[in-house]
Every structure is written in C-alpha cells, then in structure tokens.
Amino acid sequence: IGKMADVETIIEGVQSVLSPKDLVGEHVLITAGPTREPIDPVRFISNRSSGKMGYELARVARRRGAAVTLISGPTSLQVPFGVSVVRVETAAEMYGAVMDHVGLSSIAIMAAAVADFCPAEQKMLKAEKEDISMLRLDRTPDILAGIGALERKPFVVGFAAETGARLDRAERKMIAKGADMIVFNDVLQDGAGFETDTNVVTIISRGKDGVHQKEFLPLMSKEAVASAIFDSIVSHKE
Ligand code: CTP
C-alpha cells in the first residue's frame, strides 16, 4: 500500500486508456512460443520461436477490452498486464489447455510454433549418447486443426511461417485446418525472422462470398502487426 506502480504498468495503463475498446465482451484465446518434446530429462526437440508475436497479440487484445487467456510454451517474456496465462511445455499439454479453454472463447489465435514431432518414447533417466543416435518420432496433435474441426467454434486464426512467398501454401493451410483467417509470413525476409521485434505479414481471410481476401502489410513492429490483425478480425467477424 502506498508503493507506486512500476513504470511498465503505468505505461500499459496509459496505452490502455488511449486504445479503442472494440474487443469488450470478447474472450480471446492465444497460443504462443515453442513447445518442447522431451527425449530424456535433459534433452528435447523444439522449434525456433521467441513467443513475441503471441505475447503482443495478448497485450493488444487486453488493451482493446478483451478478456485474454494466453497458453504459453517456454519463453523468457513477461506476461502482459491483465492477461491470464497457462504455462505448458509439450504440444500435448498445449492441446489439452486449449481444449479446456476454447469453449469460453469467441476468438482463438494460434501463434505458437508447435513442434510437429515428439519422441515416441521418453526416457526417465538421462540416455547414453549411443542410445539416441536414432530416434523414433510420433506426430504431435494439430491444435489449430483440432479447434477448426469443432462444431461450435470461435473465430479461428492461424499462422503460416513459410520459407519463400508461399501464399498458396498458407491459403491451403487455412482451408485444411478450418481457420477463418491465416497470417502468412516469409521467415527468410529481412525483419520477419524469429527473434526480431518486427514482422512482415499478409493477412488472408475467407470473404463472405468465399473469395479469399489478402491484406499485404509492410515491415512493422510486432505490436503494430498485432493491432492490424485485430482490426482485420473485427471487420471480418460478424
Ligand atoms: N499448429 C498447431 N498444432 C500443430 C502444428 C501447427 O496448432 N501441431 C498451428 C500453428 O500454431 C500455426 C499453424 O498451425 O497457427 C500453422 O503451423 P505450421 O507449422 O506452419 O503448419 P504445419 O501444419 O505444421 O505445416 P508444415 O509444417 O507442413 O508447413
């Protein structure tokens, strides 16, 4: 009592007051970061991901008035003010946490870089090097496709990190996974990599007439990309 709030919290409070409140009443579920698939207690398989894009989405959604649940893989980022977080390690845990929360959500954004494979068996003790020269892998559950296939589902947004200008691949992913929108980025482009604070994205959405709409955005901060994604969601969601 009597202690001044820290500067970050004050800045976030000011930003929040100055933001449009067009997400009041929405429950936004966001996945972020990588997942880790253990080989043994000290080794794992993972994907490159800082989690920054997902955390910016959570911050912006909360500022604009939404209730936000962030399902986060391991990252070193600070959880944005007012966002409730569920921390997970593996793709299976992330799948379970998403399914636990999706029923309450009106918008679901899958920004996590989920590992596509996990070791078929996990050793309880640290394995000898010779024993892991060959790994048998299983596929992990596809979380985005899982919610895209639900009968009662929120507005579903996926990400497609591709190498090269593979918009066609991203569009196919949107359809195949039952998403309403997919955010494409070419990770080889300058400023669109993994650890950067910027991104270059194209937002692809299913128009009401079935024709896909594309918004090509320039190099922007991840915070500005997050705002643009919510602008697009607000205009597409009935
Ligand atoms: N995704 C997911 N669960 C997985 C794999 C991916 O929810 N097991 C989601 C990601 O969060 C992202 C989208 O699916 O929103 C696309 O992920 P990506 O890795 O590009 O697609 P894949 O389906 O894995 O296709 P590929 O690796 O063949 O490009």
Topology:
Blueprint: H1 7-18, E1 27-32, E2 36-40, E3 43-46, H2 52-63, E4 67-72, E5 84-87, H3 91-102, E6 107-110, E7 117-119, E8 137-139, H4 143-148, E9 155-162, H5 167-176, E10 181-186, E11 198-199, E12 201-206, E13 212-216, E14 220-221, H6 222-236
Parallel strand pairs: 1-4, 1-6, 4-5, 6-9, 9-10
Antiparallel strand pairs: 2-3, 7-8, 10-12, 11-14, 12-13
Helix pairs in contact: 2-6
The chain binds cytidine-5'-triphosphate.
Architecture overview:
- The chain has 238 residues and is α/β, with parallel strands linked by helices.
- It is built from 6 helices and 14 strands.
- The strands form 4 sheets. Strands 5-4-1-6-9-10-12-13 form an 8-stranded mixed beta sheet, with helices on both faces. It has a two-stranded antiparallel sheet with strand order 2-3.
- Helix 2 (52-63) packs across helix 6.
- The model has no long low-confidence stretch (mean pLDDT 94).
- Cytidine-5'-triphosphate (CTP) is lined by residues 31, 91, 110, 112, 114, 116, 140, 142-144, 158-161, 173.
Give a quick set of tags describing it.
alpha/beta, 238 residues, binds cytidine-5'-triphosphate, globular
Low-confidence runs: none
Radius of gyration: 18 Å
Q: Could you tell me the strand content as a percent range? A: 25-35%
Largest sheet: 8 strands, mixed
Overall mean pLDDT score? 94
Short recap of the structure:
This protein is α/β, with parallel strands linked by helices and 238 residues long.
